[in-house]
Amino acid sequence: MRITLERSNLLKSLNHVHRVVERRNTIPILSNVLLRAEGANLDMKATDLDLEITEATPAMVEQAGSTTVPAHLLYEIVRKLSDGSEVLLSTNPDGGSMTVQSGRSKFSLQCLPEADFPDLTAGSFSHSFKLKASELKMLIERTQFAISTEETRYYLNGIFFQTIEAGGDLKLRAVATDGHRLARADVDAPSGSEGMPGIIIPRKAVGELQKLIENPELIITIELSDAKMRFTIGSVVITTKLIDGTFPDYQRVIPTGNDKEMRVDCGSFAKAVDRVSTISSERGRAVKLTLSEGHLILAVNNPDSGSATEEVAVGYDNEPMEIGFNAKYLLDITSQLSGDDAIFLLADAGSPTLIRDTAGEDALYVLMPMRV
């Protein structure tokens, strides 16, 4: 293999693919990136056996061929080369090493044979549809913060996607929960997604997708089966295994009888929560909301460091009540709201609260209260 390509193009593609590679691997080939030169492109592929990213970048191919080299090492070398330079990649005749040359810099990297590199993309997909990048990004951003990090409840370690009938329309819905809070977002279901199985996309794949959606105007092709899902985002293809588990019936935890409505300016509420929570202990982070007509008092009491209160004007005309929430969870949810006001639908101090965005009905949040 012997190819020349722009350092900027090589770096951009390596930046996309090398993130998948784990720093520590018991299987040596998984530390490597597969490089395949043919036609006028260099194709790169990296995998951790659950997630695979491939990308094609333009190159001047003098001699076609393929090899695998350490992903993080190649990325660091290319990152440190001069801006605007050209990079020559060439393998020696026996394929045991690859030379990286740019200007006066020359590196030799150990190679492993392409034949050892695993392939995740085998198998066919039952459903295929196209979705605007901005819509996929919205579904991910509105729900990602609620993904559970508790490994024992592995079926909550991702975002659940399904198509569902809502208000007479077919919607593509994303849901995430960690048992303390739940986030749900909808977009109009694209053609081809009808009847797709409910699937759970793992947290790592969700994070990579979010980073790869750089152009919101792009149309993304999505293909899926019961076990795998593939996203084509421009020249990047990301394939992920799905979480093999059953997502809980989230509809059961969304309250329907919450009749006490509080409407509050989102920005001033978030700043007030942030200010009073400065004094709370990292472990508890509980903030007490005391509601009366047109009036809200936020209070935090920490036996070790003191107390804090702040008053906020709200739209509320029900009987007075007190309820406690985790301050971090409140801030996570309010940061996702795009409208000026947040609407809290409450029942009592021990029941889950429903939070809606005034900007639209496409997202809702459920938050479990805390004892304060």
From TrEMBL:
Molecular function terms, GO-annotated: DNA-directed DNA polymerase activity
Stated family: Belongs to the beta sliding clamp family.
Domain of life: Bacteria
SMART domains linked: POL3Bc
Protein name per its UniProtKB record: Beta sliding clamp
Signal peptide from the UniProt entry: none
Domain DNA polymerase III beta sliding clamp C-terminal, residue spans: 252-371
PANTHER family, alphabetized: BETA SLIDING CLAMP, DNA POLYMERASE III SUBUNIT BETA
Biological role: Confers DNA tethering and processivity to DNA polymerases and other proteins. Acts as a clamp, forming a ring around DNA (a reaction catalyzed by the clamp-loading complex) which diffuses in an ATP-independent manner freely and bidirectionally along dsDNA. Initially characterized for its ability to contact the catalytic subunit of DNA polymerase III (Pol III), a complex, multichain enzyme responsible for most of the replicative synthesis in bacteria; Pol III exhibits 3'-5' exonuclease proofreading activity.
Pfam families according to UniProt: DNA_pol3_beta (PF00712), DNA_pol3_beta_2 (PF02767), DNA_pol3_beta_3 (PF02768)
Main location: cytoplasm
Annotated localization: Cytoplasm
Statement: the UniProt record of this protein carries the keyword Nucleotidyltransferase: yes
Domain named DNA polymerase III beta sliding clamp N-terminal: residues: 1-120
Domain DNA polymerase III beta sliding clamp central: 131-249
Keywords: Cytoplasm, DNA replication, DNA-binding, DNA-directed DNA polymerase, Nucleotidyltransferase, Transferase
Organism placement in taxonomy: Bacteria, Pseudomonadati, Pseudomonadota, Alphaproteobacteria, Hyphomicrobiales
Subunit: Forms a ring-shaped head-to-tail homodimer around DNA.
